[in-house]
Design goal:
By secondary structure, the protein is of the alpha/beta class. It contains 61 helices and 49 strands. Strands 5-10-11-3-12-13 form a six-stranded mixed β-sheet, sandwiched between helices. Strands 17-20-21-16-22-23 form a six-stranded mixed β-sheet, with helices on both faces. Strands 28-33-34-26-35-36 form a six-stranded mixed β-sheet, with helices on both faces. The radius of gyration is 40 Å and the shape is elongated. The two termini are about 40 Å apart.
Length: about 1600
């Protein structure tokens, strides 16, 4: 088969944010770097367009319920993207999750440990291990003293005393306000002075000149005199107007630290935390957990002890214990997961961390890489991994580990796309995409796309990146000692975290850089040593500038953050027009009610919730995105209103406000840090981390400082292009030139080269770091490099780039040692980018390989990239047993699980289109001011459902034809005797007949005559009553115990009304008393079948309400949505939904189901229609590079419909996908690129790979199952039996799409009903023939004939059973009931006093108490796949060991449950009844089933044949009509031969068989063939041949 592989991602017309209709091709299976200066549009292209769309498409293959737990993803602004594979996106999120976040919680490894201790931990008797017990964020597990934080917080005296050389009144204490009041003191400075004087000093003496007892008075209080509390002195309070000054409360001065400690205990707000320090908890000593949690051990270690190990040591600990015989199964799962994560962390220099390390002690680079590695443990191929500046904060010596990690991903068949500025990483790319040329509106274009060599050699590119790479390999030697080198200051005895008692020198009035490998101690030095000591180093204040967002609201922007908006508002408020309109300064803010647009609340856009589709932002139709109300927008300054001024870039604003120094100072500060392209009114949520950091720096630059401020920056070059780094250094120079000091943690060598002073820590990480390995100016270190230093100031080489090895591309998915279900340790290779058919006889292991192994393993691995919350909510279950996998890609499954659709299921609910309709109508309603949620348009939710029919569109009412089952008999002598209610109401000695007899007598009617002979008017009275008329009748009652006479005075309701009332009374209790079988559906008289309340139906789109739109053929929907003529707002709302609807409708049309309507009840679908609808969600995603695993895609389909499935499969392959399908369709198998044949037999006799190769290679195996499938031999019937052609049948059939046809069926023979899907087969056989047979009257037709020949009618449909989860073939067919007394009769059983009940696994006498008769223990792994292990007590037999000890020929009852049905013949040769049952199993082709196999694991075909076996075991009396719905479904030709033989036997016994079937091997044996058509839907329903 010819295949076309998608080797690239093609993006067309991307306009997200500042992208200028970008179109380009990105090669797959490469390392691709997207670069450009900051703000050029890199993240918009990679994350907002490519990554978001790739994730959205893959998630759309999940059920909508699952998508609720995976976040919302809307459609990006792009015309088209092709070649997309599933995307795993790792953006920049450098912040931890607060004080409770640790390395363990960030990487999920602590969650794995909690799982391990909960499932496998050894606990004292009083302790019950649960996952929550080991969570320090849960009250169950947290230390009660520190609430799981591990620390006690107390007010730090060092932080309180900010300026010890000043007096108390002069501001020695940090909480002192400009007016002299000391916050938290509760007294004024004058009152505090009174207290001080009582102790011999005053508030005007410098703090460092006070004695320690005097300082303690201020800090801890005094009890010498009582003083008045309050912030304001009496003189000030007497000046207040409107307030009566009351005497102040008096008491002893409490002291700063006691007051602040009380506040810290009650309210941990940001203000009080500025003065707090943390110490280990005095109860748990920093372990965070309570004693119960710490008492549980695994391998003699509690969870905290493992959490304290360095990661490298932890991995070694787990490796040493893997494979021990007594190791708990959960231990292996957890150990392998943790080891895999650590092995990815170690090359990035993170092996020194431990799980208990608090996130707030990590550098931003460490946090980024932890998140990066957390996503890389899937081991999948064909994934697009997207990274946002992964080298941020990474030391140059660890960069090679990062690149190797990327190379490893590419080598295993993945695509890695990196947004990056680092020249060393860019140089290693296979493809470089440069975006620019400028930032903001000056960017958004593709400057270059190609290889590294092409990039370097390109001429006149106007690319700053090209220049940066040239400088990286040949760096300029600059004198960067600075204009103001400043004198040094020394931090003595530095020992925080891993610092080893170092004396470290830094420089005042200089740009200091602290560098070194990750974990070398940089953060410990700057944050834990320098920060706390800064107050003693004569700095006036400390300013920390990080990359945290400046705001999280859409109304937050650079103008509000920097104060520019205040300047703008002053200008506008001062304009004469504003004053005349009564507008003040506050009115020119979209954050105030008086200034903002009330419709969008000042956001400029309205976010419309789309549930599982993601939110859609639409421009506010009132303010048109301007944010302000009309009155404010009518005020102009220099011909621009305030909204237009906020939309100017900083560059444009400088020109606009020339001559206004206050505004210019703020604008030039923004330009100085390289943000000239930014719009001051731009939402802060759209800013990158680097832009936010520079915005904070600009905000500080514009302020007047003391010239003695310490600025601390953590990795300030993160997110910056090398050209932007030069701008940043220039801005920092401005700061130091004013006498301030800058200290940066940094790894970027170009930045380090420009620094004034360098401190390098190392030489290693963690316990191997913490020392100063080099310090000095760059020029000094260039001339005299230190031995241990890892800095490089010389030329770089591209050795790493040249040493790249060629990538080995995967051509196959290789599964080694597969033991799932009945598979026998097989090795399977599935070629990629083609279709593979897995064939074999029924039960040979096809589905176990495709779905149970391949898909289950792939989904389990992909789920590792999800959050633990998503995984826990999905309740994953992976029962695959595979030793190793190579080349595995993300998989999408289309399982052929049959569903018994409820009356509420429609085509729309199955395909998801009705969910989209509901969203659309809800948004249209809200735009009209009606707050109707999406649920209001659901007929399954009470608010919107019609109250009369409860949203069904019909009401159930007694059907006279069903109640009067024998109209040829009198009403008093059997006319209603078929049903239980009929017998009750028709009892000749009952009260109801007594009343009716009285009415008949009054009317002169003789009730003893047949029902058919009664006048129509009286029949109407008998059925529907006489209204409110009271009848006085005499009831001569008689029953088994007594008889007598009773006078009745009552209304006559009528038999039908009585049945209706009884049903309504009983059905809520789920006991209908037999009334349900007498009911028929009638169109609801209130909603007229539309299901919804009138309010929901009042909302229209394109002139249709939701019910009317649902009635349209699906094929007409795309044209409707492509011609939206509603108003603009509606068009925007509908656009995103319409794309999804049209995409699904297109797939449905390709499957040949375009004639279906959304409102079509799922109950009326044929098997073929239902089968194909299950394919819709998977096929509509338009993914590339995934493996579609489809279970029997053509099962039950006509050859014409199967061709359409074949076309779909080919289109998937052409789009670069792999398709693996099971089944027995000859054409699909012949069209496959590869065939894997399973066998040789079923059940335990199967599970092996018999052959594998192309269809042409299978020609050389004429005796194989695959050959028989591709080249089926149609063997005409050689067995003869007597039958009557058209011996029974129907006339004038009109149900559904049937066109008043008449059809005859072979009496005592075999009839096949065939035709394309939707042609009316099911309507004829199920809705007419079967319905008429059980009703014993014509249903859906004018008349029937010949049905009186049958004593019983059996309808064997395709569908999933409704049995309990513990039901098995042995219990379902009664085989176990026959076996139990046989075992109870053995001498061994009698000795043990065992009865038949002991041999039932559902009875307390026999079932294993540990697994409750299930045979296995299901261990919930929460966010990991559920783990199922054989029950250790019963060994998987389901029975108590004592019961299992009873044997027949060495076989216990539990052994039987584990064996196949075919395996029992030798054991029970002497038992005639058992042998007869086993023979029936074999004849039905299900002898391969295990006796104890769960019915929920059977295919639809297996369940159908099990039903047949059950019926045959009941030995029907007389002639039976067997009706089959596609009996060949899921059967190989070899199996069909067995089924044909059984059909011959049944026909020979004068039973009649009617089968809906397309398989030629089965239709060939039919005595009569009825073909309907010519097509499906409205054009079907005609009789083609009979």
């Amino acid at each position: 088969m010819q295949t076309v592989q998608s080797h690239q991602i093609t993006i067309s017309g991307a306009t997200e944010n500042n992208l200028k209709s970008v179109s380009l091709a990105i090669p797959k299976n490469q390392l691709v770097v997207v670069t450009g200066i900051s703000g050029s549009g890199k993240s918009s292209l990679v994350f907002d367009v490519l990554a978001q769309e790739g994730q959205r498409r893959f998630l759309e293959t999940f059920p909508s319920f699952s998508r609720l737990f995976m976040g919302k993803l809307g459609r990006p602004a792009v015309e088209r993207i092709e070649g997309l594979s599933p995307v795993i996106s790792i953006g920049q999120k450098t912040a931890g999750s607060g004080i409770r976040s640790t390395v363990g919680t960030m990487t999920d490894m602590y969650d794995l440990l909690r799982l391990l201790y909960a499932r496998a931990g050894k606990a004292p008797e009083a302790v019950v291990p649960r996952r929550s017990l080991f969570s320090f964020n849960s009250p169950e597990g947290a230390c009660p003293h520190c609430k799981g934080i591990g620390l006690e917080e107390q007010i730090s005296e060092a932080k309180l005393v900010a300026f010890p050389d000043r007096s108390i009144r002069g501001g020695a204490l940090a909480p002192t306000l400009p007016n002299g009041y000391i916050m938290y003191s509760q007294v004024t400075a004058e009152v505090l002075d009174l207290v001080c004087r009582e102790h011999g000093f005053n508030v005007d003496i410098p703090w460092n000149q006070l004695s320690r007892p005097q300082q303690e008075v201020v800090l801890f209080g005094s009890t010498r005199i009582k003083v008045p509390f309050g912030k304001h002195p009496l003189e000030s309070r007497l000046k207040w107007t409107g307030i009566t000054a009351k005497p102040r409360e008096e008491g002893f001065y409490k002291g700063l630290i006691p007051i602040m400690s009380d506040i810290l205990r009650r309210d941990r707000n940001d203000n009080i935390l500025r003065y707090a320090e943390s110490l280990p908890c005095s109860v748990c000593h920093g372990k965070r957990l309570n004693e119960s949690a710490l008492s549980v051990t695994v391998e003699n270690m509690n969870i905290h002890q493992l959490s304290e190990m360095e990661l490298s040591d932890l991995a070694a600990w787990f490796r040493q214990r893997l494979g021990n015989q007594d190791t708990h199964p959960v231990f292996t799962n957890v150990a392998e997961s943790i080891i895999r994560i650590i092995e990815n962390l170690e090359p990035l220099g993170l092996g020194h961390l431990c799980l208990s390390r608090a996130a707030d002690t990590l550098s931003a680079g460490d946090i980024q890489r932890l998140r990066l590695v957390n996503q890389l443990s899937s081991g999948l191929s064909g994934i697009i991994y997207v990274f946002d500046e992964p080298s941020a904060g990474l030391h140059s010596e660890n960069l090679s580990g990062l690149i190797q990690l990327f190379r490893r991903l590419v080598a295993t068949g993945n695509t890695v796309i990196v947004v990056e500025h680092d020249p060393a990483l860019i140089a290693c790319a296979d493809t470089i995409i440069d975006i620019g040329p400028g930032a903001g509106n000056s960017g958004g274009e593709i400057i270059f796309s190609g290889t590294y060599d092409e990039f370097i050699q390109a001429k006149q590119l106007n690319s700053p990146t090209q220049q940066a790479i040239a400088e990286f390999f040949d760096p300029p030697i600059t004198n960067s000692d600075g204009a103001f080198p400043g004198e040094g200051f020394i931090l003595e005895n530095c020992r925080a975290l891993n610092l080893k008692n170092q004396d470290i020198e830094l420089r005042y009035r200089a740009v200091n850089v602290v560098c070194g490998p990750s974990g070398s101690g940089k953060t410990a030095l700057v944050e834990h040593e320098l920060g706390p000591r800064a107050v003693h180093l004569n700095f006036d204040k400390i300013i920390r500038i990080n990359r945290q967002p400046i705001g999280r609201s859409p109304r937050s922007n650079p103008a509000t953050y920097t104060g520019l908006s205040d300047r703008y508002r002053d200008i506008f408020a001062g304009l004469p027009e504003a004053k005349a309109a009564g507008l003040g300064k506050s009115d020119f803010s979209f954050n105030t009610g008086s200034g903002r647009c009330t419709h969008c609340e000042g956001a400029g856009r309205i976010s419309v919730g789309m549930h599982f589709l993601g939110d859609v932002d639409v421009v506010c139709p009132v303010c048109n995105g301007k944010r302000f109300n009309r009155q404010v927008l009518d005020i102009y300054y220099k011909n621009k209103n305030i909204a237009e001024i906020l939309d100017l870039t900083v560059h444009e604003s400088i020109q606009f406000f020339e001559g206004q120094p206050a505004i210019m100072r703020q604008l030039t500060a923004l330009e100085l840090v390289g943000l000239g392209y930014l719009q001051p009114g731009q939402s802060s949520t759209t800013l990158s981390g680097g832009e936010a950091q520079r915005l904070k720096l600009a905000s500080e630059l514009q302020r007047t400082d003391t010239g003695n401020t310490l600025y601390i920056l953590d990795e300030p070059t993160t997110g910056l292009h090398p050209s932007d780094i030069k701008v940043l250094m220039h801005a920092l120079r401005k700061i130091t030139q004013k006498g301030n000091t800058v200290v940066c943690i940094e790894h970027d060598e170009s930045f380090i080269r420009q620094a004034d002073y360098i401190v390098e820590l190392g030489p290693g990480q963690g316990k191997n770091g913490g020392e100063v390995v080099a310090s000095g100016t760059p020029s000094k270190l260039i001339v005299k490099p230190q031995k241990k230093s890892k800095l490089s100031f010389s030329k770089h080489n591209d050795t790493q780039r040249k040493d790249q090895q060629p990538v080995e591309r995967h051509t196959h998915i290789a599964l080694h040692g597969v033991n799932t279900a009945n598979l026998k340790n097989i090795l399977v290779e599935i070629p990629l980018n083609t279709s593979t058919a897995i064939t074999g006889v029924s039960g040979s292991g096809k589905t176990s390989l495709a779905l149970g192994s391949l898909y289950a393993e792939a989904f389990s691995r992909f789920s590792q990239s999800m959050s633990t919350y998503s995984r826990s909510m999905l309740k994953l279950s992976n029962r695959s047993r595979i030793e190793s996998v190579h080349g595995l890609v993300a998989c999408v499954a289309v399982s052929r699980r049959f569903t018994n659709h409820s009356a509420r299921s429609t085509v729309g609910t199955i395909t998801g289109i009705y969910d989209l309709f509901r969203l659309m109508y809800s948004r249209i309603a809200q735009q009209q001011g009606k707050q109707y949620p999406a649920g209001f348009f659901s007929f399954n939710h009470q608010p919107g459902a019609c109250p009369q029919c409860d949203g069904l569109g019909y009401v159930l009412s007694c059907d006279p034809g069903k109640l009067i089952s024998h109209p040829e008999k009198p009403i008093t002598a059997g006319a209603m005797q078929t049903s239980k209610p009929g017998k009750f109401y028709g009892d000749p000695d009952g009260q109801y007949i007594a009343v009716l007899q009285h009415i008949a007598h009054e009317s002169g009617i003789d009730l003893s005559q047949p029902w058919n002979n009664l006048p129509l008017e009286f029949r109407e009275i008998a059925l529907y009553g006489t209204g409110e008329t009271i009848w006085k009748a005499q009831w001569n009652f008689k029953n088994k115990t007594r008889e007598g006479t009773h006078a009745l005075s009552t209304v006559w309701k009528g038999f039908c009304n009585l049945v209706d009332e009884e049903y309504q009374r009983r059905h809520l209790n789920k006991s209908t008393g037999g009334t349900e079988q007498l009911l028929a559906r009638k169109t609801c008289p209130v909603c007229k079948g539309k299901r919804l309340v009138n309010e929901a139906l009042s909302i229209v789109f394109q002139g249709y309400n939701i019910s009317e739109l649902s009635e349209l053929p699906i094929g007409s929907l795309p044209a409707l949505f492509n011609k939206i003529n509603d108003e603009i707002m509606v068009q925007e709302l509908v656009h995103s939904i319409g794309l999804s609807i049209c995409n699904i409708a297109d797939i449905i049309s390709k499957l040949g189901l375009d004639y279906l309507s959304i409102s079509r009840s799922a109950e009326t679908l044929s098997g073929g229609e239902s089968q194909r609808l299950q394919l819709v969600s998977a096929f509509s995603a338009k993914l590339s590079g995934v493996c579609y695993v489809i279970d029997e895609p053509a099962a039950g389909l006509h050859p014409k419909d199967a061709e359409k499935i074949g076309d779909i499969i080919q289109s998937l392959v052409n789009n670069g996908n792999t398709v693996v399908f099971t089944g027995h369709d000859s054409k699909l198998t012949a069209q496959a690129g590869y065939i894997i044949e399973m066998g040789p037999g079923s059940g335990n006799q199967g599970g092996r790979v018999l052959a594998a190769g192309s269809p042409s290679e299978m020609k050389n195996r004429p005796h194989s199952a695959s050959y028989a499938l591709i080249y089926p031999q149609l063997v005409p019937s050689t067995q003869s039996h007597k039958f009557t052609p058209s011996g029974f049948g129907v006339h004038g059939a009109y149900a559904n799409n049937l066109k008043n046809i008449s059809a005859g069926f072979a009496l005592g023979g075999i009839t096949a009903v065939t035709g394309v899907s939707g042609s009316g087969k099911t309507s004829l056989v199920r809705d007419v023939l079967y319905a008429s047979a059980i009703s014993k009257k014509p249903v859906g037709c004018k008349s029937v004939y010949g049905l009186e020949n049958f004593s019983d009618v059996v309808y064997l449909k395709q569908g999933q059973n409704a049995a309990s989860s513990i039901s098995t073939p042995a219990t379902f067919t009664g085989l176990l009931d026959v076996l139990r007394p046989v075992y109870a009769a053995t001498s061994e059983a009698k000795k043990l006093n065992m009865k038949a009940s002991h041999f039932s696994y559902v009875h307390a006498d026999g079932k294993c108490p540990d697994c409750n008769g299930m045979g296995e223990r299901s261990i919930s792994m929460d966010f990991m796949s559920e783990l199922n292990i054989p029950c250790p007590t019963c060994g998987g037999t389901r029975y108590k060991p004592s019961v299992q000890s009873v044997k027949i020929k060495g076989v216990g009852i539990g052994d039987i449950m584990k064996n196949g049905l075919n395996d029992l013949s030798d054991v029970f040769k002497e038992h005639r009844e058992i042998n007869q049952m086993l023979e029936i199993f074999a004849k039905c082709g299900i002898g391969h089933l295990r006796c104890g196999q769960a019915l929920s694991n059977l295919s639809g075909g297996e369940y159908q044949r099990l039903l047949l076996a059950q019926k045959l075991m009941q030995s029907p009396r007389g002639k039976c009509l067997y009706i089959f719905d596609e009996p060949a479904t899921g059967l190989h030709p070899f199996d069909i031969e067995k089924l044909n033989t059984l059909f011959y036997e049944l026909a020979a016994q004068q039973h009649s068989i009617v089968m809906i079937e397309h398989n030629k091997c089965m239709t060939a044996i039919a005595d009569q063939v009825i073909e309907l058509g010519p097509e499906g839907g409205p054009t079907g329903g005609n009789l083609i041949r009979n």
